[in-house]
Structure formats: C-alpha cells, structure tokens
C-alpha cells in the first residue's frame, strides 16, 4: 500500500488535486486500480490540511499522511517549535508520538529522541516520514509506551506525554484520569525514569483541576496561536514543591506575546479607574490564565471593574493583547444609544455586561463589521457603559 501511494503518478495526482473538492472527486473513476481510492482521497485531504499547519511536511516529497483526524489533532509546527524551547538535555522519550511533529522539533534540541506509538501503522508512517525529512536522531517504537519504557529501562532527561481522552469520557468534565495514558496513576513510575516531564493537554482542562491531579508542577504554559488557545503545557520536575509559574504565550505572525507571573500571590492589588485615553484587551492566553490582577500590577494599567477584564491607561505600552484608542464613552442609556450607535456599523465586544452581542445588535439595529469597535462593559462604580474605540494593535 505504501509503495503504491509513493508511485510518481499517484503523488502527481494527489498534488494536482489539493484544491479540488474531495466529495466531488470521490464520484470519479479511480485512476489507480491497485490502490483503494479512499486512501488516495485521504492523502489529498490530509495534505491540504497540512499546507499551513505543517509546511515542512507539505513541502517535502514522498510524505505519507495518516487520517485527516490525526493531522487535525497534531501540534502545528509553530506550537511544536515553542515546546522545543522548554526542553534541554541529551534524551527524551515521547510516550504518545502520534504524527511525530513535536518530536521533529524536539530532535533539533535533543541528541536522542524516542517516538512511541501504539498504532503500528502510524508508527511505520512516521518512521518513513522522518527518513524523508532526513532526521537521524529519532528512534520509532511501535506498541504500548508503558511497556517500551519498562523494556528500555534507562533514565531520560525528559518524558513527553500528550494524553488523549478515552471515548467513554465524552460528556464528562475533563480530567486527566479519564485520558490514555492515565498520567496521575502512572506519575510515580514515570519519575522513576526521568526527573522532568512535559505534559500537553487540551485548553479545555481547567487549571485548578489539572493541579488537583498532578504533583511537582513547576510551570504551566498556556499556548495560543493567533489568539486561539491551542494547548496547555504542564512542566513537572521530580521533588519540586515551590511556587508555580504561569506563562502565557500568544504566537502571532512574526511576533510572540509572552506574559508570566507566579500563581496565587496574595500581595497583588490592582488599580481601578474610569476609562482613560486607551483601552487594553488581554489575549486569549492571558484570559485563560486568570491573572487579571497581575496584568494591572505588571503593566501599571487600571482595571475598569473587578470582573470586566478590560484595562485603561493614558499612554500606549507593549501589551499582550489588543490596544484601542477610546474616542468616546457614555452610559448605556436609550438616548445615548440612539444618538451614538443605532443603525450604524460596529464590531461589538461584551465584558461583564448583562446582554449578549446578538441582543445588542438586534435591539439597536447595529450592523456588524467596519473599522469602529465598541465595548459594552461595567465601570468601577458598577455603571453599565459603552466605549467607542479605534483599533491601534
């Protein structure tokens, strides 16, 4: 099957149809009788998804792709590159290797990487792809990673784990114990084989829930890609019991916004103020972190309200999020709304406000889009207010 996919004419067909509607293509006659057409169609779909997410793979000849779901679930190159900045040392074992994107980048920093994958077919695909990518310092092991870890019986500088939710865990509150492998249950065994563990979880996992199941957490990295939180990274070190660093990372095109602070610092006291000249809206990674008071103190900017999570200042500063110039603000009253916004076009955001964006649009006949931004929120005196803004960043 693999050799059939890699035939020159098959690869040419795949590349020629990357922008073709696969649903329509499926009704055509299979031009390659020696291979299931569904396999070829999957290669087209998966490679199309890889173009922006995995450009190194996309631009390398004779790459074989797994199911499109595997490509959707794998790390992007940008988030994988960030993960590689966390680790160091001589050796790393990945217990949940998947498509191998993280390991490719780990291998640029680590002398010896082990890729474990329970699915033998996927393991073989990844091994083939590493050869095409000219990666020589990754060993692929098919089978249960728990057994592989026992069999190899050596000390690793890092263990990396990306546990997946079991099928019977759908609908439940996200807990690590409901994933495979069961990290909380196996943690002591893992620490017999390493002093440092990096765990990737979906952003759905609540930070306090993760901390209740894990121990020796030194840092939590909240990683967003263009303001969409993609993953949480839990950095565990054997016998560590100190303060936990929370690091928010938003990877933009060409820039990275980073904000970090120590969790549960009681001495953090924010400032409050009515709107000043500029409005600051934290990015999604900062919002996930819950470090709203820390933002005020660290950047010396004032909060509009305890629960609004919007900030204001009279000057422009470097900030992990969007920055707006406030051109007007007024109380949320019928007369003001009719005069200032009714029938006009605005982008609308609500923060700590009792009405939804949809209701506001309908109620005041406000069109979507345009260059003007409006924030519906609550000020420090508990008054409902509207801010009209022009975007700076």
TrEMBL record:
It comes from the Bacteria. GO terms for molecular function: methyltransferase activity. Residues 278-320 form the PG-1098 ferredoxin-like domain. Residues 321-391 form the THUMP-like domain. Keywords: Methyltransferase, Transferase. One of its GO terms (biological process) is methylation. This is Class I SAM-dependent methyltransferase. It comes from Flavobacterium zubiriense. The lineage of its organism: Bacteria, Pseudomonadati, Bacteroidota, Flavobacteriia, Flavobacteriales.
């Amino acid at each position: 099957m693999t050799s059939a996919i890699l035939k020159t004419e098959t690869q040419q067909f795949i590349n020629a149809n990357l922008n073709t509607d696969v649903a329509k293509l499926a009704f055509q006659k299979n031009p390659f009788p020696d291979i299931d057409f569904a396999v070829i169609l999957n290669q087209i779909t998966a490679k199309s998804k890889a173009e922006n997410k995995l450009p190194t793979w996309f631009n390398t000849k004779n790459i074989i792709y797994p199911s499109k779901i595997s490509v959707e679930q794998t790390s992007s190159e940008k988030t994988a590159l960030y993960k590689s900045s966390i680790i160091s040392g001589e050796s790393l074992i990945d217990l949940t290797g998947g498509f191998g994107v993280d390991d490719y980048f780990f291998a640029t920093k680590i002398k010896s990487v082990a890729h474990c994958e329970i699915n033998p077919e996927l393991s073989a695909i990844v091994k083939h792809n590493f050869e095409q990518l000219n990666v020589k310092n990754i060993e692929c092991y098919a089978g249960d990673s728990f057994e592989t870890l026992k069999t190899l019986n050596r000390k690793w500088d890092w263990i990396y784990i990306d546990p997946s939710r079991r099928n019977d865990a759908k609908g439940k509150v996200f807990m690590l114990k409901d994933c495979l492998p069961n990290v909380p249950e196996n943690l002591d065994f893992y620490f017999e084989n390493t002093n440092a563990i990096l765990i990737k979880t979906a952003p759905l996992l609540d930070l306090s829930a993760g901390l209740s199941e894990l121990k020796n957490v030194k840092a939590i990295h909240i990683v967003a890609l263009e303001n969409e939180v993609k993953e949480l990274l839990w950095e565990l070190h054997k016998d560590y019991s100190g303060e936990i660093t929370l690091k928010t990372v938003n990877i933009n095109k060409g820039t990275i916004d980073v904000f970090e602070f120590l969790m549960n610092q009681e001495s953090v006291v924010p400032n409050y103020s009515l709107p000043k000249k500029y409005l600051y809206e934290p990015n999604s990674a900062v919002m996930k972190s819950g470090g709203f008071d820390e933002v005020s103190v660290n950047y010396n900017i004032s909060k509009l309200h305890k629960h609004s999570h919007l900030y204001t200042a009279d000057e422009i500063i470097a900030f992990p999020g969007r920055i707006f110039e406030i051109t007007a603000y007024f109380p949320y009253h019928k007369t003001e709304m009719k005069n200032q916004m009714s029938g006009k076009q605005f982008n609308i955001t609500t923060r700590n406000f009792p009405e939804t964006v949809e209701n506001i649009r309908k109620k005041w006949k406000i069109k979507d889009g345009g260059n003007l931004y409006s924030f519906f929120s609550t000020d420090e005196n508990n008054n409902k207010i509207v801010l009209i803004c022009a975007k700076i960043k």
